[in-house]
What we know:
The complex is a heterodimer. Chain A is α/β, with parallel strands linked by helices. Helices cover 65% and strands 9% of the residues of chain A.
Amino acid sequence: xxxxxxxxxxxLRQAGVWTMLLALASVVTSVALxxxxxxxxxxxxxxxxxxxxxxxAVTAAALVGCxxxxxxxxxxxxxxxxxxxxxxxxxxxxxxxxxxxxxFTEGDLATRIGLNAEETGRAPDSIVSGLSLLIPSAGxxxxxxxxxxxxxxxxxxxxxxxxxxxxxxxxxxTDLAAGYQEAQAELAGRFLDAIKGARTIAAxxxxxxxxxxxxxxxxxxxxxxxxxxxxxxxxxxxxxxxVPLLEIVVLxxxxxxxxxxxxxxxxxxxxxxxxxxxxxxxSAVGQLAGLxxxxxxxxxxxxxxxxxxxxxxxxxxxxxxxxxxxxxxxGLDLAIMGGSxxxxxxxxxxxxxxxAELAGRMADPERGTVRLxxxxxxxxxxAALRGAVGYAWERPAMLGDTVAGTxxxxxxxxxxxxxxxxxxxxxxxxxxxxxxxxxxARAPMSGGERQRLGLARAFAQGERLLILDDATSSLDxxxxxxxxxxxxxxxxxxxxxxxxxxxxxxxxxVIWLExxxxxxxxxxxxxxxxxxxxxVFA
Amino acid sequence: MRLRARHDGVLxxxxxxxxxxxxRLPAGRGGPRLTLVRQVLGSRxxxxxxxxxxSVVEALPMAALGxxxxxxxxxxxxxxxxxxxxxxxxxxxxAWVVGAVGARQVVVTIAGLxxxxxxxxxxxxxAGVLHRADGDTAALARTNLQVELARDALAAVIxxxxxxxxxxxxxxxxxxxxxxELVVLILPPVVAGLALFAASLPALARRHxxxxxxxxxxAESVTAMAAGLRDVSAAGAEERIGDQVVARVDAQARAxxxxxxxxxxxxxxxxxxxxLPVVIVLASAPSLGAGPxxxxxxxxxxxxxxxxxxxxxxxxxxxxxxxxxxSLGRVLESAPVPPPRSVLEGGRxxxxxxxxxxxxxxxxxxxxxxxxxxxxxEGEHLAVVGPSGIGKSTLASLLAGLLSPDAGWVLVGGxxxxxxxxxxxxxxxxxxxxxxxxxxxxxxxxxxxxxxxAVRAVGAExxxxxxxxxxxxxxxxxxxxxxxxxxxxxxxxxxxxxxxxLDEATCHLDAAAEARAEEAFARRGxxxxxIAHRISSAVRARRVLxxxxxxxxLGTHEDLLDRSPLYADLVGHWRIA
Lengths: 538, 577
């Protein structure tokens, strides 16, 4: 937790001037809030004297002015602090790279960078607002005792009795929420089914019938929703009654003290206001709970920041054909000649993807070294490494703004169109509404089309080594054929993880993996003699 | 032939724009969105009256507060009659309890108004989305969430506006009963405060909207980044993608700061509308001859009723109004009102004729088809082959009338394809649509006939047995893709259509099952067009259309083996594999 607290402290410092301004304005607002009932009470008690009304007016002006300032400062400090935490988290996560996804799921990562960073950013506001809410609410209770201790006694007694009475009306509403969510889920499920079948429905002109099938859930949804509304209304009403009833209890007591001449009318007014202010103590504590949330959020962000960033060396690659050597890692000890095409085959779980990761330093081996043209991969600068190796996967992520942007993802000049042609993507890209400049959001793509853009990205980028991990699995036979032909003419070193016999047959050499180790290697025709090798493709 | 106009989406008629024309949404303006809200609320006048009634009950204790305090003090405690004072306060307590009942009913009544609103919106979304056979599935499904957000925002807007109106009325009535002159003195600053707020509202709405959009953009880019870490790292694109995400983060922070500035300024309008009246009461009430209890009552009205009411109005209206506008805009955008559809009678023959057909997905896109001529005689069996993304499905959609050509024409049975009665042709797409219901309902979706004969012909008897007969309930999520495709194939087989278009409709079946299904359709009679997933479909067809991006080539299998290098290549490759 100490690292998380350091993050919260640094966040406070980042918001800088705004935090100071927020603190100052909040304290003045609190004091003014506390002083105002007293001043108004004095003004009521001394009609004709202009001192108290003037003081009250000045205090009200200060209250409003500082409140406005606090609102501004709170928003601005939160925005700045959250942006600072987010920027740090974003850069750091990118610096660590895909290693993080082994510890955190994608959704979890997004929550930590998005929501949790923002909650951490709210720390300055929670601390200052919570503390400054304590001033008027705790102060009001103190002042109530100062005006007349009996009023405080009445308040305490009233609080217990009223809370007990209201609690008796409490009902639970957990079933309601469950039923509501169930109806929601069913509606969403039917809707999603129909969206996926949209072409069938459009062709049959059966939209109306389908709408009826989906909306069939509505009456049930409404029943549950109304139940939830009612439960919420009951809860809100109970909470809303507490303060006015407490105020009346205190007013009754104050009335008797007024009749006894122990209290002035102005003091009675002030007492009533202090009850209202004092009952805000609960929400002041709630504000401080916001700090607990910010600390918890900071702890979750810190877990990301604690992961050490991936380090790159400074070396450049000497001229070379792209020869790859993997030495001394468990079970893997191989050299791949520059410019050759190697297929990697094996049952699922045999370590194919692990080999693909190691070959281009998407992961570092625990032992041993991986060399490209004689240089250990960790010695290479990021630019040298990523410029030399191109990766394509079964499910590439479509990042970047446009189709061209997702092919040339790192923003460097790249042969976009030629790469797309080799990946069999050019024809379909040209048919998109804006061709290569079509924004990705406006280009709904099938799995096969996405794979082709992923291939194009690898072709455009890797100068010496291409690593394809099941990257043609969703292509139709025609396209796969075209891609295979383009690959066979390529002069770069090619490492192709595959399930398909034809791909293995077309490679110069096949590496057959089993349980993370090389079971055998050699030309496909020779391995094909082994029935266990043939079984890999069954 | 007689033109028969048909309007789909009857459910939604009351919500459609006038004359059924598609609603166009000008950015940022309220037009169609306001109309929508007004129509839904206006259709429930009884609830609106009930809402007004319960609001009066809810406002009762606040309206009575000042009067009660004045009497309790001046006639009771200060006059040495504490029992009278107690009675007044007791009455106030009772008023609070009655008011609480009112408050509860107000919430329930508002719920009764916004739930139908949600249903109307949902109906509209469902109909609108189903009428567009394209689009991003996930994004469309998210409109469900937008509908929920719109409902909550509408409830909040109604609550805030209504609460302000009735609180203000309560204050005015109460003050008028205590010191009528004060009403005249207090109203000008209240009106001035409201005017200031109204003046700032457009800017506030703009900044709120900007913030909301920036916030969503940030969340979106962060999510995309988290999902694509591997790709970013492999491409060495850390800096570029980082810059893009950070730019969004910074834009959001700027929008947040700008919004905070306006929020601060808005608080100042509260000074004019709420706190100035306090000073006015303090300064002028004694000179108007009011006793201490009356002054106190008047003050209570202002500090305990007027100030919170204004504060809630200023705080709630901006944020929720914008949320409502944005969510409604999104919903209406994703679900435009479907245009009326016309259907011509006739066209019973399954023959088709295409002349000079040109189609492109956008003005800057290369055309998918350009100058295509094709004749399909009744009873023809055609296979279409070519790499995916080349336009085979587009051709299927044009034949089925789901798309209209940019130039040239497509006739089916002598009628324009987009005007033909849907029973005359059937399109079976790759994504098999099976819905929750019985197997029989699913099979009879397009028409009925000899069901078990069709099941046997297509090769689905094992599936029917496994599911437990025709009356069994099916859950599409529990079926494999192949099983879903078998169901849609039986369904198409049962339809009376004379033109059947299978658009990779057998891609999840194994080769033997695919052959059995295709042969069944070939024997079924009528015209059969198969968009081929495997080259074997082409070998079975009488004629083959090869699409390879630069042009099309039509011929028999043997013919094309000679003439089309691509086709020969494909067939040769298929034989080896």
